[in-house]
Amino acid sequence: MTTTTAPDSSRALALRAxxxxxxxxxxxxxxxxGAVDLPAAPDEQAAHLWELGARRVEFTEELxxxxxxxxxxxxxxxxxAVRRLCLIRDLTARAVLVQWQLRLPSEPDDGWRDLSHLxxxxxxxxxxxxxxxxxxxxxxxxxxxxxxxxxxxxxxIRDRRWGELRRFTAEEPEYQEAITQxxxxxxxxxxxxxxxxxxxxxxxxxxxxxxxxxxxxxxxRWIQEAMAV
Length: 229
Known about the structure:
This protein is of the alpha/beta class.
C-alpha cells in the first residue's frame, strides 16, 4: 500500500504504548514504551509500533467524529481523524490491544457498526443507547471480521460486520487502484464516482469530512487457517 495525497495530517498523534496486553503486566518495570514518535508515513506506523514491541496502545485524546462529519469540515482536522482511524485499523489487524475513546454523530444510530471490526473503544458517545451499542460491539468483536486480501489479479473482501458473511471480489484494475488510493484517506472528488458509489453502498469506505478512507484491514495475524476465514 502507498500513502495518498490527502490534506495535511502532520499533527502528532498522542498515544502511549506498552509491551504487554495485560494491564497488571504493563505496570511492571520496563513494560512501558511511553509516548511513541511515529513515522510520517501512515502505512509504516503500525509496523513501527509492532517492531518496538507494542502490544497495548492508548490514544490519549477522544476521537470526535461529530467535529469532522460535515463535508465542509476542516480538511486538516478530518485528515488527522482519518490518520488515527487507519492506525487503529492497522493495529487491529496485528491483534494489538487499542484503548481509545470515540464520539459519533447521533444519526444514524447504528453508525458504530461500520467501525465494529475495529478494536472496541473504551468509551462510546453518540448513539441513543451508547452503553448497549458498546456492549454489543465488545461482545461481538473478533479478529478478521472485515478484511481484504490480494490475489493474483483480484481483490477479495470478506465482511461479517452485519451478522452474516458478505463477500466481494473485484477483478477490475481500477477498483484495485482505488483501494490503494483510499487506504489512508483521499478526497472524494479524486475517486471515480462509480467506484466511490459502489464502496459507499456496501459500506466498505467511510466518509470523514471531505475524505473517504478504506475500512477493511489486510490482516497480519490469522486466528485460523486463512482458507477458513
